Amino acid sequence: MQTVKFNELPLSDFMLQAIEEMGWEDASPIQAQAIPAVLSDNDVIGQAQTGTGKTGAFGIPAIEKVEIEDRVTQVLIMCPTRELALQVKDQIYQLSKYKKGLFVTSIFGGESYERQFRDLKRGSHIVVGTPGRIMDHIERKTLDLSNLRMMILDEADEMLNMGFREDIEQILSFAPKERQTILFSATMSREILGITKRFQNDPEHIKITRKEVTNDNIEQLYFNVRRDAKTEAMCRLIDAHDLKLMLVFCNTKSKVDQVVVELQERGYAAEGIHGDLRQGARNQVMNKFRTGNCNILVATDVAARGIDVNDVDAVFNYDVPMDLEYYVHRIGRTGRAGKKGRAFMMVPRRDTGKLRELERYTKVKIEEGKIPTAADLKEIKINKFKEQIKENIDEEKNALLEGIVDDLKEEGVSTYDIITSLLKMQLGNLDTTGKDDDLADGKRGDRSSRSSRFEGRGRGERKERRGSRKGNGAHGSGEPGMVRLFISLGRKDHVSPNHIVGAIAAESRIPGRVIGQIDMYDKFSFVEVPERDVQKVIKGMKGKTINAREASIEVAK
How many Cα atoms within 13 Å fall on the side-chain side of residue 189? Predict the structure, then answer.
């Protein structure tokens, strides 16, 4: 598609001024097609992925069409999450900078009603919110849609996935029939088409193909790695590439919590965000990430909607995404504004099929990367330090430093000993002991691969876990016919593997001998049970306790 500049579109001078200040020059494909269509009063279906400029595609014409003199809600924008609602509101603010008198407000759950009541009563031309809170305000009669001229659904597919269909349809039914309806979605499911047929009038369908979405600035690699070695592999990649700001995506909330703990225990500044986090805590985590106090953000796909942080060095797909669309959403958060980005994916052998399916879907060949060994990291660290030494060599003499060296020489210390001592102080002990761990997910029956899942754990923990299995010969992690379950209790809850086996066997009426691998952590645990018994265990343990402590149990993904 031919590049279109913003000054070639039918936009006002105040809008072009705001766009220029934001550093935008060329309209993205979705912006170039959607802006004229929305300005022409047509209903529009925009099909495009995250990171393609959708907010500008509907936000720019929405601002242009607002009549400042009429202090009523003229535009309503629905978003699936609080984070996305805030991002959209912030971008609308920036774009409307030079349209004096335009008021924008956001309404979503997890925030006090007082500010929202005040803003709505004052009169907001544009309201951005989540479906649940929008319905709440409509029912309280604090949000009046009788004068609405434009309804915008952003990421409609995600709102339906989150169970908001009933709310969406109710909100649309409250709006005047004579309105413009704009819908943006990454996919066009049967449910989405049903909404468009019912609530839109002869919409113009604008679709941006995957080829146009693909970002050539992103290096995409996958790494064959055992499930229990993903964190170790990720840490080695972070250190090897000297990454500064990263997003890590997991498929479940429990996995987010687990990965955050593992990273923090290794000394990384990591925080997590998922649906169970309260709004205040979510805001704190995002502020830490945006200000650099935390440089690794671990998130689920839904919670990450609306996260818009520049200069993300790399995106880690800790889990292969369950939905193929999510992969495009994930990696679109790096390699922005013409900068280079990286997208790394941890792929255990059992997920190889998903990887091939993902390649067919994206039409991109994802190459296999090599996980750095401990020896590789040692060499990288030494080479980096050599470069730092060269960069810090100063032509001008430093009398103070020369004096220190001369004093040491007079005391009988050789120049070589001075240098090696300083190097040791700066670099620490670089010696590597023992065999370098192979993190690859080897073939079934490879003893080194199967036994290595115990490496790095204390003898006491290993003994405790073995004892809990009572020599039953159950399959280990990843064996055919076994399913891994997440338990919300761990060592700090004074729960042991024996407690877990006893509770599951008693409450689910399955023999203790069939229970497989148990992995204990401080705040949670994992247990493997036969696939045929999964529902029996989940139902049997519902509302039950382990060692007198209430436990929740779910399938770990």
Answer: 13
